[in-house]
User: What shape does this take?
Amino acid sequence: MQITEFMQQIDAQRASIREALARYQKPSIPRSIWQLVNTLVPFFGFWAASAYVYQNYSYWFVLPLVILAAGFMVRAFIIFHDCGHGSFFASKRANDIVGRILGVITFSPYDYWKHDHSVHHATAGNLDKRGIGDVPTWTVDEYRSKPWYMRLGYRLMRHPLILLTFVAFYIFAISHRFWLPNAGWREKQSVIYTNLALAVVIAGLVWLVGWQTFLAVQLPILMLASSGGIWLFYVQHNFEGTYWEHQKDWDFYKAGLIGSSFYKLPTILNWFSGNIGYHHLHHLSPRIPNYYLPKAQTEHPLFEQVRPLTLRGSLKSLSYRLWDEQRKMMVGFNILHNKREQA
Assistant: This one.
């Protein structure tokens, strides 16, 4: 189906899309509790096993354990994310309590992150409302109009080796420890209390296992989980065929079904990432718990027509850096040379 025809189908079927998604907006308490158990118990288990192995055996034996622990940390973040949307439990209080606890585990201030992420959902794909809760994306013309030092900074930030390592670690380990000047009091409290809780937890772990063991275990877990999380967030909106429009032409449904990827991962990776690959549905209805997203995918024929992004195909997203407004597509920096030659 051509993109124009697909957009017309979206316009014509909004009511049926809402109806199909509404069937899955009620969380299952047993499933939510079980998901907490099968995520947190292995996470703490692998963390403890990593500390024990580090103190008694070669560090090479620790690496498989910290990789697994990082995978469960990513899964814990997805639950944290669902709590922020009010979709993991029916009770707002339960969502907030669990979300704040998981915020300590994932180094993320719950209320602060919840606010920014809600802004992201309300503005994803909107060229006039970029800058909160998203990966910075410039248009080709914007890039060409910036001074050299800003272009250099943008190039560095968008480079995969930097974005998925230094930037990812910086966001979770450092940036989340502070608030921006325009933050509200609730968001500021969230940062303060999360930092205090982290200080207590870290002090306790250092007392229990020693600072060397703590760093040897926690740093690689946080680095790997941060990289995995940022990659998922990046590929959800930076892919071939994504959607960007100015406010006057922006549409919530099109931003969801076209501007958010259907990342079709292998079963094991889909489990660890909490079905976040069904991001097109998540953006249309963030009140759906992650465990219902695969079933919701089968509820409307239009969902089946969304072209899936495979693991192999997603690697192409690493070359996308800018939005070309003329061609309405993500492009790499090579477009700058091509346009210069044409001029």
About this structure: Strands lie at 138-139, 263-264, 309-310, 322-324, 329-331.
